[in-house]
Sequence to fold (301 residues):
Amino acid sequence: MKKSVKSASLRRQNRNRFFSLAFFLGPFLLAFVIFTVLPVLVSILVSLTNFNMLEFPDFVGLENYMRLFLNDTLFPTAVQNTLILAAITGPGGYILCFAFAWLINEIPPKPRSVMTLLFYAPALSGGLDIVWSLLFSNDKYGYINAWLMEFGLINEPILWTIDTDVMWPVCIIILLWSSIGTSFLTFIAGLQTVDKSLYEAGAVDGIKNRWQELYFITLPQMRGQLLFGAVLAITGAFSVGSTIFGSPTQDYTLYTLSLHLNDYGGARYEMGYACAIAMVMFVMTYVANQAIRFIIGRIGK
Fold:
């Protein structure tokens, strides 16, 4: 009799826990399934079809992927450019965000608020492309060309968005500056939540300088924020678009997978082929995220 009463009470508690979890997590899980899981599954299915958005999709199997890897002459260029930009701007922007957050966290609260706003301003600037277009305009009225000509450093305007010799550094500068946004705020918040008593305990255990404090105490206590910032950095790095250069760029110098996807999906309406490109980007992003998750998990060990 007592066992049956206990088992019934246990079942009732488990049922109450389930309903509580469903109540609090249900809306998030529903939104996650509708806006994340279903689009990925639909993209996989559509990538196996020939679909022009006007007629019913025709199943073609792996034909889109074979065409992408074997016959698309621009695909290797797009992959190469995407990987190079991701390798530079992803880690670069991530490190810049954390470095600025770490430095700003060391100053008093009131100046810290002002500096945080200044560094977060790029994420708030909806017309950021307009600002960079004014700075790197190809004529003598562009601010940078005007300054360089005024100081006698150049005799004629530099074609920042056309000359293939300068497009890469200009693009990298813009992307690095634009990357200081949500991740920066996340790192600031994470640094504020680190328990200060851990530093005292670390000093007792033999930690001697700020670098050791950073690696053995600060970073391990911020794994959640570090992972969130890494996901944002990787997603942004692999989805680099036209910035201020337009699409396609001169001689396809800055042609990326994102531009390749927009070309077939937004201009040609070859949605099956565009979904195949999207799946390649998805796999690349997933692999990079798993690698970063492993690296962050090893910090402080």
